Amino acid sequence: MNFSGFSNKFCVSARCKEINERLGIHEVCGMVAPFWWPISLNYAKIKILGIYIVPSGCLLTSIWECAELIVSKIKHLKQLFQEVFEIDDPVLRRELLRNCIQYHQEIIRMTYEWNKATKKSLAQYSWLSPVVICFITSQMLKTYSIGAFVHLMGFGVTVFFLCHAGQEIEDQCYNIQDALADSRWYKSDKKLLKTVQIIIMRCQKRIFLECNFPGGAYNYNLMIIIYKTAYSYVTVITNTGA
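Above: the chain sequence. Below: its structure as tokens.
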């Protein structure tokens, strides 16, 4: 959601309250995303739940769902690769293998389009996460704050889920060659075996969730880099007494 959409929610908040009073309803006003709460949201700390947690949860779950969709397609592709070599008819086997290759190319295209659509937002998150985690942790070391703890857990969990989703995509893509190796590829002719070799070579080129950070992809390595960078920043701030 852009800034204009974010600010518009607060501009129409007063009108929303007037409608509630006039019609006797209890619509939640001033929220970035549709939100329901069983009690009145007059307290600022409770209102933060709707302003911060709901949009952040939508971002996290949307990325996670896209990753799971791609992983499910890759698992389906591996199953199809194994079923291809169970067929005795060489003509039908070659045709089904061609369909699997097209399916593989479609998965690669989907991942490319996904990276193209989310590259800027995820790149900002990868760069800002160490800084935000650092400042929140530094605040917690100085002053007890439940709000800071909630923010810290939110950023930490989001980084983990994003990196885990990217790592799962990489692993499943790389394991396509294992599905081919476990199949009855030896029943094929030499021409078809060359095609299998090309597929295995293509699996060496990883499919990943892209980000503009050292390493270039969301995976467990990036997660360690983010946490270690944040820890280094906290150490510097603590030692300098900032």
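Residues 49-240 form one domain.
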